């Protein structure tokens, strides 16, 4: 299935605003960000590399429009969100030792870990500066302060999630609840913040903002579980991640956590045995896939995606907004539930 | 010479406020911060390890009092500043590969680089949350927003300085101007922000705040150059840094930069030759010290400290405040100019 149409609607506006935001910063430190964002190659020459889906800023702009005000008002917040997301990606790539992202060497792989830390941290500060643009464009002080608070809390939860993710690498007794605590931080917090922020800017109704927050939380969880599914059963050509996937990287994604906690003893033993080894080869990967097939893991985790999507649909139904906005949000939910193999 | 008395005046109040700030955070992620701050050992048991001088928060509180309002008003800002400073220390230790700080293993050495990145980044977010406490305690919205702006800019300049510091590691043609650009970011930006923030809270006079900003800038540069002097000619028992100092770590501190750019050709060649080697031994260190002695480097850099201190004294003289506050600031300047060998 193709990327939902709505994800392209605001794309060039987001890209333009992001480029304007970075424009005044000329130190080579900021070229590391431009490289990461796909605008230049590692030598600084212009490039048009594939960039991200801009899912988070799009959700922010959508929530603003659905709330009743023009999406442009939420652009500074959307830019801030995309910067926070990319701050975390630059650090994550280093923390996970990932050498490629979207078929290009990661920032740390080119400039080294110490400078990748600087590029990521500076990006998080730029997010604050981007958000202050909303205030200059007339956002009332109380709303601005509310946004500051939710952006900081989302970042903190995001870092806590990343902390748990790394901690879980050495744990074999984590269950689905632990996993959910981790992705609520690592993924859902920022997606939820995107939608809440958009709604705060787009409407004065606090209940609507709260519903959008919940919608973002559910969408975020569904999104991460689907990402986990693609990381194991997805095609490396479409995901842009190196072949072999999350099994090779011994990541504790939901399918693995599910098999280790709910699978039959034989399946648990097989997977734990392979994950405790130093390196995971092709045969190991096959063995894990076979063990997961035996335990019916795919159906169970796909069902979890569908549950969170169903909850998302209920929230979309409950939020007061025009029909066309509901349709757009449903497009995104639809995209997440499609079986990927 | 002993640490100036004024640095102890607010110490326990700062420590108490910092502990209260961290108290609600119970995830083990935050224990890495408590460890770094010297409150607990690596197993989580209470400890009373030597902590930092709390120079930056003290300067913030001093500037607030000198401006005319009680120092308590500036405490949220002072806590935020100390958190920003320690965010940068946790990351710097990892970036520089330093295994010890204040005679204890650094955070990354115990929990690994990936988790040290998380602890540092989370600390920077906590700084924002600390600062929002000032707003809750009644700081007007316009002042709060001004503070947010200067804290973000100081952090950005701090990261830019760290970027340059790492970049310079492989450069042998940097001069005193390049060095000053680096420490203006790495050290002076946050010290200057501390004093400006304190003054913004302590007075409504914008000119006073601007003068304090300049004072912080000058003090910050003097402070860093003095630190560089101690890093080469200082005693490892008093600095708390491992023996052999900055020569062994091949850091481009001012004495080295000065010798490489202004020394006689023979001295330049000797130092560059040693710094380009993979490891610097005891004999190399001695040779560098001898070369610097020959070029009279110590006297030159000490003179630079004294120039920035003299400029600081002029600013202290020009700022309208009670005599006792001037005396306190002069105590700090005095401390910085004392010859250390």
Structure description:
2 copies of one chain form a homodimer. By secondary structure, chain A is mainly alpha-helical. In chain A, 73% of the residues lie in helices and 1% in strands. A two-stranded antiparallel ribbon of chain A has the order 1-2. In chain A, strand 1 (100-101) and strand 2 (104-105) form a beta hairpin. In chain A, helix 2 (11-22) crosses helix 5 (75-96), helix 5 (75-96) runs antiparallel to helix 9 (176-202) and helix 13 crosses helix 16 (297-318). The first copy, chain A, starts with 5 loop residues before the first helix and ends with a helix. In chain A, 50% of the residues are buried. Chains A and B meet through helix 5, helix 7 and helix 8 of A and helix 5, helix 7 and helix 8 of B.
Strand content of chain A: under 5%
> Average pLDDT across residues of chain A?
92
H/E series of chain A? HHHHHEEHHHHHHHHHHHH
Low-pLDDT parts of chain A are none
Protein topology:
The structure is a homodimer of 341-residue chains.
Chain A: H1 6-9, H2 11-22, H3 28-36, H4 55-67, H5 75-96, E1 100-101, E2 104-105, H6 107-111, H7 113-136, H8 141-168, H9 176-202, H10 206-233, H11 236-239, H12 245-248, H13 254-262, H14 265-275, H15 282-294, H16 297-318, H17 323-337
Antiparallel strand pairs in A: 1-2
Helix pairs in contact in A: 2-5, 3-7, 4-5, 4-9, 5-7, 5-8, 5-9, 7-8, 8-9, 9-10, 10-16, 13-14, 13-16, 14-15, 16-17
